[in-house]
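Support request, please re-run this one:
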Amino acid sequence: MHSTGEKPGKGIYQCINCNQKIKLSGSSDTLPPCPRCRKSKYKKIK
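Re-run finished. Output below.
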């Protein structure tokens, strides 16, 4: 599980609340609050 503000690395992350996907393209990218529901917990799906 990853949270808003973390830099978990390149990949696709899915909000555990609404299933919105976020793509991070580099190791310095930070997970934002979910753009759909504003929650902050994600799981890595790819």
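Residues 37 and 43 are 15 Å apart (CA to CA). DSSP finds no helices and four strands in the chain.
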